[in-house]
């Protein structure tokens, strides 16, 4: 279990360790990443990291939890001021693509977590889907969104966001995030059927 | 590089090796999986596997390529007889969830390929997206689907299928695949907006 530092200095060191771990695992992955390299990146004396974490596994798990919180906060700021629920979804996708472009290592860590820390990986997705589901239900209550929305729709939206963050965030930046999110949002609002049919 | 066997017996052994590799990597993942265990599962004499593959890495890569071909063939059979393009998409998702339920190891291998064999992983997704894109364009030409469909829509559909296969195929079988695909298909056709707005 992550040890909670009692001093301000300790808490600052913990932040430094998490940043170093993000770089290390984000670049090399969990298997190639090492505690000694994380210590070096964080400028710690040998063994100092063990005042904070017992193992590489534990650092990785703390990182997945941190990413969950960090990403949630970034999204919350965007969602709060959206005029309606579908505009909120548009902003979430755009924020997600930009977030991944800025922190490519994060995408790798989250995907690898499926094998290294399956409960954390699943918790992250379930937290995302719960928030999307709540927004969809709010939209249904206000009459914006069809009344039969549910969990399957929420998972579908998460799937779109994860894949488009990979394609347009990690693999290639050949489309502007706001165009990607506009195209997807229009599809989500109106569907793919031709309007004449 | 995978060696191509010249005899029928050799080709049969290769099939047996691929099945053993699918079990081994599907259960244990790439890092924990071993060549000696694949040999044992395939009932080969020690060292016999090296008549076919030079390394664990090479077996894994051949497996990703095989999965690509196998899944493509399963889908093709479903798509060929669909009345229209959106019905084809519905069947693809349903087939995908069932496929993953029957072969849970495959999902793991494909996801892990992102790190072990990134080119193969990306080729697999690009092949999927090309086929979805072609179907969408055919639908646009016939007037079924809106004329502005493009690559972003195709990636969005792949994202939905991958996530829902994870959620309703690997994690829990708490919804029937044909219900999941029906809900998604209706969303893809008509969108989430309330019809009265």
Automatic annotation (TrEMBL), chains A, B:
<dbReference type="InterPro" id="IPR001647">
    <property type="entry name" value="HTH_TetR"/>
</dbReference>
<keyword id="KW-0238">DNA-binding</keyword>
<dbReference type="InterPro" id="IPR009057">
    <property type="entry name" value="Homeodomain-like_sf"/>
</dbReference>
<keyword id="KW-0804">Transcription</keyword>
<dbReference type="Pfam" id="PF00440">
    <property type="entry name" value="TetR_N"/>
</dbReference>
<feature type="domain" description="HTH tetR-type">
    <location>
        <begin position="11"/>
        <end position="71"/>
    </location>
</feature>
<protein>
    <recommendedName>
        <fullName>HTH tetR-type domain-containing protein</fullName>
    </recommendedName>
</protein>
<keyword id="KW-0614">Plasmid</keyword>
<dbReference type="InterPro" id="IPR023772">
    <property type="entry name" value="DNA-bd_HTH_TetR-type_CS"/>
</dbReference>
<dbReference type="GO" id="GO:0003700">
    <property type="term" value="F:DNA-binding transcription factor activity"/>
</dbReference>
<dbReference type="InterPro" id="IPR036271">
    <property type="entry name" value="Tet_transcr_reg_TetR-rel_C_sf"/>
</dbReference>
<feature type="DNA-binding region" description="H-T-H motif">
    <location>
        <begin position="34"/>
        <end position="53"/>
    </location>
</feature>
<dbReference type="GO" id="GO:0000976">
    <property type="term" value="F:transcription cis-regulatory region binding"/>
</dbReference>
<keyword id="KW-0805">Transcription regulation</keyword>
<dbReference type="InterPro" id="IPR050109">
    <property type="entry name" value="HTH-type_TetR-like_transc_reg"/>
</dbReference>
